[in-house]
TrEMBL record:
GO biological process, one term: protein O-linked glycosylation via mannose
UniProt-recorded name of the protein: Glycosyltransferase 61 catalytic domain-containing protein
Domain annotation Glycosyltransferase 61 catalytic: ranges: 222-402
GO terms under cellular component: endoplasmic reticulum; membrane
Subcellular location(s) per record: Membrane
UniProt entry keywords in alphabetical sequence: Glycoprotein, Glycosyltransferase, Membrane, Transferase, Transmembrane, Transmembrane helix
Taxonomic superkingdom: Eukaryota
PANTHER family (alphabetical): GLYCOSYLTRANSFERASE, PROTEIN O-LINKED-MANNOSE BETA-1,4-N-ACETYLGLUCOSAMINYLTRANSFERASE 2
Topology of the protein relative to the lipid bilayer: Single-pass membrane protein
MF terms in GO: protein O-acetylglucosaminyltransferase activity
Transmembrane segments: 7-25
Source taxonomy: Eukaryota, Fungi, Dikarya, Basidiomycota, Agaricomycotina
Length: 481
């Protein structure tokens, strides 16, 4: 008898085998593409749930580790690893029926709950609204190990690795600036406090977050109108899993406790009473009180730049040909320069191109691809534009002695959004009121005078060009690249 044609069963078997072989080799494939190390237990703190676990080596078989069972012994206690208002790194955080539980026999050592968690509702102005955001027993509780045993029974389902846990309403999430320069920014600033010596290469010992969990947001509500949020996520943490309100509700309805191995918990409302928040109105600001490397953001920025097809070194150095990028809003319809002032600015910048040999780009982001936007930002030495979302691109610049953001405001107007973010990256920010420039520490208080959002913002293009020369010649003498 000859060989019979393979049966469906045999074909399926081969498929299963091939998938198995592939999975075994996946870690290697990932390593080559992923600059942030794989989720190995970090040297800072070993995996709190499974200190004994060993990497799979092909010859051991085990039950999937889905459950942390304490049987008759004490319920493992929650540990606060790092905390500032609105940003908390917590090991063994429990959730049960939609409520967050901190299990501790030393409740006096736990920070005030309102600085960790809130009701996660929209932020409105006023004392009444502030009080309405404070958490109560139906949101978060501290319980003793004895109470935990009564409530949870003998174990909890494990959510392993690091979870970015977001307890914010949709209010600010659907906007590139708030997503990338506040949420993503604050998360990494808080989390990277566990590796406070990240070098300029951006290499870190921290495992990438496994998942991002939103307790108050539907899946379709996290993307922004400029469709940049997804580019930031997929380029910095390509295998991050995102979970939303319905996933949160699933677990709540199961009436079973779950335990997070480690969360980095973000809560905008909880961040608001912090001094740093009060000073700068930036939700990420309190996180800067934690330890951190001067190069903290490069772990993210370099991955985004590589994703855009460039080397992370792009934009570095102070002796290379500088790149000036003016992000024009003149076609946007809101917050625009006086047309003649815009034209004069463009002429003055073109002069710099001719006289000094700088590269000058006048761009309209909506007309560029997302990749082009990231590439140009990564190469840019001086980024300028009217106060607005386009300046979020500053996140991808390479901080050095001459990298600068110049922001145009209606005279008398000011907001910290891009000013604070620029400084938080170690770069220099200048605000412009027509021909007057100002920079930290001599900056005005936030103000939104009439005309702030209008289309008649005056600007002296000559003064802006003069500042560019000043930044690129006088302060560019030191080569720190
Ligand atoms: C950063 O890590 C990668 C591997 O992930 C390694 O090839 C590279 O040499 C490291 N860079 C530095 C400056 O340590
Ligand atoms: C695999 O791991 C098991 C348990 O840790 C160990 O006993 C065994 O020697 C290992 N096998 C190989 C091939 O490394």
């Amino acid at each position: 008898m000859g060989l019979a044609p393979p049966t469906l069963r045999e074909i399926l078997l081969v498929c299963v085998l091939l998938t198995g072989v592939y999975l075994v080799f996946v870690p290697e494939t990932r390593e080559r593409f992923f600059a942030v190390p794989l989720p190995l237990p970090s040297p800072v703190s070993p995996s709190p749930l499974e200190p004994e676990s060993e990497p799979f080596n092909g010859s051991t078989r085990q039950i999937y580790n889905t459950r942390m069972s304490w049987e008759t012994s004490q319920v493992p206690q929650t540990k606060i690893i790092a905390h500032v208002p609105g940003w908390s790194i917590i090991d063994r955080l429990y959730i049960y029926k939609g409520v967050v539980f901190i299990v501790s026999d030393e409740p006096h050592k736990i920070p005030q709950l309102s600085a960790i968690y809130s009701k996660g509702v929209d932020i409105e102005v006023g004392e009444e609204a502030e009080l309405a955001r404070l958490p109560d027993d139906s949101d978060i509780r501290i319980i003793s190990t004895v109470e935990a045993r009564e409530l949870f029974g003998s174990g909890a389902q494990i959510l392993d690795g690091v979870t970015y846990f977001v307890n914010d309403p949709p209010q600010f999430v659907r906007h590139y600036y708030h997503w990338a320069a506040e949420l993503w920014f604050g998360f990494w600033r808080a989390y990277s406090s566990l590796d406070p010596s990240i070098p300029a290469s951006g290499n870190t010992s921290l495992p990438a977050p496994r998942r991002m969990l939103f307790t108050r947001l539907d899946a379709f509500r996290w993307r922004d109108y400029s469709t940049m949020n997804q580019w930031v996520v997929r380029s910095s943490f390509p295998d991050l899993t995102m979970e939303f309100l319905d996933d949160w509700d699933d677990r709540a309805k199961m009436q079973t406790p779950f335990v997070f191995e480690r969360v980095v918990l973000a809560d905008r409302s909880a961040a608001m009473p912090a001094l740093n928040y009060q000073r700068y109105q930036r939700t990420a600001a309190p996180a800067f009180a934690l330890p951190g490397s001067a190069h903290w953001w490069l772990a993210i920025r370099n991955n985004v730049v590589r994703f855009a097809g460039l080397e992370p070194e792009v934009g570095a150095g102070t002796r290379k040909r500088p790149v000036i990028t003016y992000i024009s809003r003149q076609a946007w319809g809101r917050r625009m320069l006086v047309p003649a002032d815009h034209e004069k600015l463009v002429r003055e910048l073109r002069k710099l191109e001719v006289v000094y040999g700088y590269e000058v780009n006048v761009v309209v982001p909506e007309k560029m691809t997302r990749l082009e936007q990231l590439q140009l930002a990564a190469r840019t030495t001086i980024l300028m534009g009217v106060h607005g979302n386009g300046l979020t691109s500053l996140l991808w610049m390479k901080p050095n002695a001459r990298s600068t953001v110049i922001e145009f405001f209606y005279p008398g107007g000011f907001a910290h959004d891009y000013e604070y973010t620029t400084r938080a990256l170690g770069m220099t920010h200048y605000g412009f009121w027509d021909s007057d420039a100002f920079t930290s520490p001599d900056i005005p208080l936030p103000a939104y005078p009439e005309g702030f959002q209008g289309n008649s913002i005056p600007l002296d293009g000559e003064a802006v060009a003069a500042l560019c020369i000043h930044r690129l010649r006088l302060e560019g003498e030191v080569d720190d690249g």
